[in-house]
Amino acid sequence: MLNPVTDLIVADEFIKSALREDITSEDVTTNAVFKQRVEGTVDLIAKADGIICGLPVFKRVFEILDSSTKFDFYVKEGDAVKKGMLLANVTGDMRVLLSGERTALNYLQRMSGIATYTAETVKLLEGSKTKLLDTRKTTPNMRIFEKYAVKVGGGCNHRYNLSDGVLLKDNHISGAGGITRAVKFAKEYAPFVRKIEVEVENLEMCREAVEAGADIIMLDNMSPAEMKKAVELIDGRALTECSGNITKENIKNILASGVDFVSSGALTHSAPILDLSLKNLRKI
Q1: pLDDT digits 0-9 by tens, 160-172
Q2: Do residues 240 and 259 make contact, with C-beta atoms less than 8 angstroms apart?
Q3: pLDDT > 60? residue 134
Q4: Burial 113-146 (b: 16+ CB within 10 A, else e)
Q5: Residue 137 annotated among the catalytic residues of the structure
Q6: Cβ of 76: how many Cβ atoms within 10 Å?
Q7: pTM passes above 0.85
Q8: How many Cα atoms occupy the beta-carbon half-sphere of 137 within 13 Å?
Q9: 18 contact partners, CB below 8 Å, separation of at least 6
Q10: What DSSP string runs through the chain?
């Protein structure tokens, strides 16, 4: 998976696109108030409890606008923060601080919200062997940031994109004429080092996936009781994953099934933002 902490060159294209979305020609309000460079500093403050994530992206937004912008961070990536905490000071051209504020906060709030939701969900799995995975249900052009935030929150990444692994879902299976044929085609086409995952919806499909030689079997929208029977049927012959409308509120229901992984689209499509603010802009 691409990581914006170590590979900001890749992330830059998305950050620049976000800045172009917010500043098509100029920040007319800021330019009306400030006719020339004025040095200033502003405080980054937490307005809620959570896990902070996205500090390198937040920083990069301002650096793209002005490489001389300076930062004093009082927390590290992945730290737990409390409401009212001073997280950082950003110092530089006040025009840059004002023009970059919304884009920088949009990234930081969104990524911190995902990390916070993920951390809360991971905590519910403590004491079990089950690991938490994300999905491809991400915001367009935000996947690199959102999947990174899942990792910061203590979750694990499923495949990054369609080039990243074989996952035979219901439409692949029906189009191929069944699980056996779909797995056969995948084995013939994909390199032998690729694992083949198959989505199943009932015990009959599960049995066919095992016999076809699937490496991972995804138990989709099964009841906890059905999952338990499926895991027993598989009996270690494949890794097991469950999915289907799994959220922080209901994830504990699946623990007794003994699945290896649980994937939840809610990590990236339903996590609320962590409320953060840039306040107290002042000349220096």
Answers
A1: 999 999 999 999 9
A2: yes
A3: yes
A4: bbbbbbbebbebbeeeebbbbbbbebeeebbbbb
A5: yes
A6: 8
A7: yes
A8: 17
A9: 61, 103, 106, 107
A10: ---TTT-HHHHHHHHHHHHHHH-SS--HHHHHH-SS--EEEEEEEESS-EE---HHHHHHHHHHH-TT-EEEESS-TT-EE-TT-EEEEEEEEHHHHHHHHHHHHHHHHHHHHHHHHHHHHHHHTTTSS-EEE--S---TT-HHHHHHHHHHTT-B---SSTTS-EEE-HHHHHHHTSHHHHHHHHHHHS-TTS-EEEEESSHHHHHHHHHHT-SEEEEES--HHHHHHHHHHHTTSSEEEEESS--TTTGGGGGGGT-SEEE-THHHHTPPPPPEEEEEEEE-
Angle formed by the axes of helices 55-65 and 8-22, to 10°?
60
163 vs 193: CA distance, rounded Å: 14
CA triple 83-85-86, angle to 5 deg: 145
Nearest to 60 by CA among 116, 103, 109, 110: 103
Write out pLDDT tens, residues 263-275.
999 999 999 999 9
d(CA 236, CA 254): 18
Q: Which of 137, 195, 228, 229 is flagged as catalytic?
A: 137
Q: What is the largest CA-CA distance in the chain?
A: 72
| Burial class for 249, CB neighbours closer than 10 Å (0-12, 13-18, 19+) | exposed
